[in-house]
Amino acid sequence: MLQVKRLAHATLTTPDLEKQIEYYVEVLGLHAIERSKKRAVLATRTGLEAIVLEQGDKMGLPRLALQVAPDSDLGELAATVRNQGLKVERRSGITPGVADAITFEDPKGTLLEIFSDYDFPKIGGVQPTLSLLKLGHVAYRCHDVQRVVKFYTETLGFRISDWRADRFAFLRCAVDHHTINFVSDEQQRLHHIAFEVRDYAEIHRACDHLASNDLRLVWGPGRHNIGHNVAIYHMNPDRVRVEIFAEMDQMKDESLGYFDPRPWHGDQPQRPKVWGPETLRNYWGPGSEPDIYKNL
Description:
Blueprint: E1 6-14, H1 17-27, E2 31-36, E3 39-43, E4 49-55, E5 60-67, H2 74-82, E6 89-92, E7 100-105, E8 111-115, E9 134-142, H3 145-154, E10 159-164, E11 168-172, E12 180-184, E13 189-196, H4 200-212, E14 217-223, E15 230-235, E16 241-246, E17 273-275, H5 277-284, H6 292-295
Parallel strand pairs: 1-4, 5-8, 9-12, 10-17, 13-16
Antiparallel strand pairs: 1-5, 2-3, 3-4, 6-7, 7-8, 9-13, 10-11, 11-12, 14-15, 15-16
């Protein structure tokens, strides 16, 4: 089994590359560290590559990059994956920060780029209005959630943080409550992408900044029950649902088995569990947070 340590970057296709570059750079404050006629690599001010944009016929998320421990032997990891019956390729020059990777598809057809070593780019320029820390998580709609969760836990080493009934899974690969989400749906497609900011003050700043750029919120600000992150959501020009969040639950010691206690937790301690309608009513009371994952 591989052991993924970090969500690195997501590759998005777009029919209007220039408009998307303008959105991610001018509105969200990412930095273009590499550009060509049909591609752009965007990173946070902290030096983490977050989004790769590629010219395409329509919006999609065909590839996802995940980091394993530095100095890992990619050849050995490739052999491990091949032993599970998967087709694996070795690729180079993924991005400026990722020189070497192995690639294979997950059960829903997303190509995963697994790499071990990362070179931080030098980021200069003016401090943007928003200061995104990282690409925090990616959520997908898929046909068979149970099958996809089994793959990510048994092949990639993810851990299950929570379930919402049996249709929405929240998985982590490090301390954050979730790095990747899967929700059951008839159509397999992207649900949303999410960027972390430092604190609630940044969320407040983001609300005003998005409004000044004529981008209206579709949900929030509010605190989720599952994961407890404070979040806002908006649609970007490609109709990609984008979340900006802070204060997500963290499990800093896996052996303890619970998330670091916070005053807003309904359970003490807050452990991974299955959330259902009754659980949510008992947790928040009548009139609690609606099923935003269904409505979004």
